[in-house]
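USER: Fancy drafting a protein?

ASSISTANT:
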Amino acid sequence: MFVNATVLREYKSKNYERVSEVSIFMADIAKYQQEISKFNTKYTKEAIKEPVNFWGLAGFLVAAAYTQSVIPLALALLFEFFYLAVMPFVPAYRRLVNTREKVRLRELNKSNREQMIRGFSPREREAVEYLRQQKEVIYRNYFKFTGAKELPANLTSLDQRWEDFVDLLDVYRRRKQHLKSINRQAVHNQLSQAFRAAESSPDDRTRRIQQTNVEILKRRLASFDELEKSVKLVEGQLQSIENFFGYLNDEIITMSTPEKFSLLDFEQLSDSITMTKQMLDATSDAMGALDAHNRQMGNYELLPETNR
């Protein structure tokens, strides 16, 4: 009986493992099927909206109305079924759809950025437009002084650097406004009160609550310092982008061949902007968490005026 019981347990264990493997396998298949279905639906929807599909169906409808027959409608359904069964899976059509999507997103980002610029102050808009004009001057001077027919890849990256300038300027202005809206003295006063309340607490529970408040206020003051550092960092990054554009224009004027332009270093500025954005992302998370906690605790006087 002991041997039989042992064999039975092993048998059940192996069966359980097999069932688990099958379940995982089936779950993966279902996941892949869902992804494939979603992927194919995208191209099917685009195929339905194609003008050739619309006008083809319209032609069959006109033929049906003219002949007073259902045969054109039946043919329309047949051709529509064949069209939707084939067109979404044609590689060339999928590349066309993907290209359209990229262009649409690019235009959307451009529109959103221009709308953001319209919300800048006159001085900020002037800085943005000056850098945009300088970028175009650099392109013209490159063609003029090098005799080249097209822009090199590293020079076309100026479009991205200009967009980085606009995005960083937006961060700079919002964070500077955030700093102006902060009442640092109020935070210091609350920290002093929390210290005194913690020292004079009648019991451990009250003391723990006040100590928690003290730590939050300390973190808030530390976040102010980090915010000030980030504002100075972004300000320096904005200046470096402006200086880089001026430097490029000066260098291009003295160049006689496109080959010399390839020696200019674009990567240093790109890496610097990437590091700045990463630091800003980290600071944004910290500030957002502190603001959310203070809002939850009811410390509205510690929040920026725009977030109360």
Observations:
- Residues 55 and 262 are 50 Å apart (CA to CA).
- Residues 2-89 form one domain.
